[in-house]
């Protein structure tokens, strides 16, 4: 199953995003990544499931998304 | 001790606030927004939930618009210095605290002072008269920390909205005693001192921004975008450089729970009842000078300025302090209010209440004032 990593940049948006996605039935957790040249330090959401739906939920909820990547 | 200095900070904190602070010190001593381990995320979770609670309490859109500052003065500095630029104009009321006046003067922008009258219509009219084409920001207190008078900020915010002027409310004396809904009342920036009528610990302030802040006053580590030397522009982190006061934020959360549990209206009714008893009692004492009209609901916050005839406020305060009563004497960091009262040279005493005061304390104080 594909795992998606959504970079929100800040812990505030990560928690907001996590709560929104959980309310909508997603299994999601927060991790912090370091050493990424594009993020510096930043918080990401890790989830599985319908990424298009997740993205829509986050955007409608006002969560800033920096980047979405898919991992196998 | 009888503590009547609650407009400075609430002297008695609810047990639930003390428990929340203790719990944060024991179990949440990790740095939110800095690390990815469980303890740091638990702390960040609590901080986020408190942001959401604060946003709900003040009718603000989005937890991310809630910024935790060191105090209300810092919050006001962020707005005044972050919004105003050379060539802008601002309007303030004649009852502002130095937390507004000093940063405003420091910006160097032109500003006008709108006079506050006993009659709200006259106050609104004077504000309207002071607005100019280049007025960018109106900053006003919700209630005077000297006279307790509640200002017609909702009407003035409505005028600002119509004219495209940003509106900032200094809610230091009204947060927790009167309902505030930023969205419905068209408040763009709200600055609050939760250690007063929200019963939180000292060392924490609230700033809620629904409009941009262009210049940050303080820059530093935010735990995000760490490769960049330029301050991030995302709220709330852009205004929260450095480590947050997590125990105090836990106290804010519990303080709001406390106010919600009792009911803001019930607290305000009770404190106004004490204010009326005090006013009536002191007005019968020929040694006491009162400066305000008899207190009315929704017209006054639970604050009363007075003096003892023939004594400087500091001298009278010494008498009350020695007899176990905590008041505040002097100018209360609000010289413009004292100029209006005619007390700028000697200040006043000020009594102010919280939910933890009672009628017996007020009656004891009235009796003590007869002996001064």
Integer average pLDDT of chain B: 96
* Largest interface: pair, residues per side: A-B, 19 and 23 residues
Structural class of chain B: alpha/beta
How large is the radius of gyration of chain B?
21 Å
DSSP E strands of chain A, number: 4
Count of DSSP-assigned helices of chain B:
12
Low-confidence stretches of chain A: none
Number of domains of chain A: 1
Number of discrete helical segments of chain A: 2
Q: Helicity range of the residues of chain B?
A: 25-40%
Description:
The complex is a heterodimer of chains A (72) and B (372). Chain A has a single domain, classed as Alpha-Beta Plaits (2-Layer Sandwich), CATH 3.30.70.120. In chain A, 32% of the residues lie in helices and 38% in strands. Chain A is built from two helices and four strands; from the N terminus they run E-H-E-E-H-E. Chain A has a four-stranded antiparallel β-sheet with strand order 2-3-1-4, with helices on one face. Chain A is globular, with a radius of gyration of 11 Å. In chain A, 39% of the residues are buried. The model of chain A has no long low-confidence stretch (mean pLDDT 90). Chain B is of the alpha/beta class. A seven-stranded mixed β-sheet of chain B has the order 2-8-7-6-5-3-4, sandwiched between helices. In chain B, strands 9-10-13-12 form a four-stranded antiparallel β-sheet, covered by helices on one side. In chain B, strand 6, helix 7 (182-185) and strand 7 (189-192) form a beta-alpha-beta unit. Chain B starts with a strand and ends with a helix. The chains are: A alpha+beta (72), B alpha/beta (372). The A-B interface holds A 9-13, 15-16, 30-33, 37, 39-43, 62, 64 and B 32-33, 35-36, 41, 44-45, 48, 51, 62-64, 222-228, 232, 234, 236-237.
Topology diagram in text:
The complex is a heterodimer of chains A (about 70) and B (about 375).
Chain A: E1 3-7, H1 11-23, E2 28-36, E3 40-47, H2 51-60, E4 67-71
Antiparallel strand pairs in A: 1-3, 1-4, 2-3
Chain B: E1 2-3, H1 15-27, H2 38-57, E2 66-69, H3 72-83, E3 89-93, H4 98-107, E4 110-114, H5 120-130, E5 135-141, H6 153-163, E6 166-170, H7 182-185, E7 189-192, E8 205-209, H8 246-262, H9 264-283, E9 288-290, E10 303-308, H10 313-322, E11 325-326, E12 328-330, H11 335-341, E13 348-352, H12 359-369
Parallel strand pairs in B: 1-11, 3-4, 3-5, 5-6, 6-7
Antiparallel strand pairs in B: 2-8, 7-8, 9-10, 10-13, 12-13
Helix pairs in contact in B: 1-8, 2-8, 3-4, 9-12
